[in-house]
Specification:
5 helices; Beta-Lactamase; 178 residues; alpha+beta; five-stranded antiparallel β-sheet; Arc Repressor Mutant, subunit A; single chain
Length: 178
């Protein structure tokens, strides 16, 4: 794979209206004041706005993928907080733009791989043959310019964020119960 630039992880706090109160971003363009979804690409603004609204109003944690207006791609988690002044916490982890090259099935296969599923388990989950799973992996390796299966596993572990707990199973505080 071509050498990737360092990917960004940011934490942002917003008020109940969705205005950015604080961010860990070093980018001077991202500053407190505007609605946080204004930084999203036009295609992802509504998704971002709805996710923040659900976190604020329904107190439901949210998880989605979105792009910024400058073309950066992020995996985003949003958790409700207990204050109108600081209503949500947003964690955004940049994902390599190469992820956009993958088909939906290749991406799903890599997410299941990141969860630790075997090839047989992935085939069963997706209702496809083991051979088709291998085809998805081979095509993903080619698109991502990865040299080995080990490199593909490492990529999946770093950039394919599986839900460890389904969002519907999370209590209001966003932490899984034991």
């Amino acid at each position: 794979m071509a050498r990737m630039t360092q990917l960004v992880t940011t934490v942002t706090l917003c008020d109940s209206a969705g205005r950015m109160i604080w961010t860990s971003s070093a980018n001077p363009e991202y500053k407190p004041g505007p609605f946080v979804w204004e930084y999203a690409s036009p295609e992802d603004r509504e998704v971002s706005k709805n996710a923040i609204s659900r976190a604020v109003v329904l107190r439901e944690p949210q998880e989605f993928d979105a792009s910024t207006r400058v073309g950066e791609h992020y995996h985003v988690w949003i958790w409700p907080l207990n204050s109108p002044e600081l209503a949500v916490c947003i964690l955004a982890v940049q994902v390599p733009p190469e992820m956009k090259l993958l088909s939906a099935r290749e991406t799903t296969s890599l997410k299941l791989l990141a969860e630790g599923c075997t090839t047989s388990e992935i085939a069963r989950e997706l209702d496809i043959s083991v051979s088709t799973v291998h085809t998805h992996f081979r095509r993903a390796r080619k698109k991502l310019k990865l040299r080995s299966v080990e490199a593909l596993i490492g990529f999946a572990a770093r950039y394919c964020y599986p839900r460890s707990v389904p969002l519907a199973d999370l209590p209001l505080n966003g932490m899984p119960s034991e």
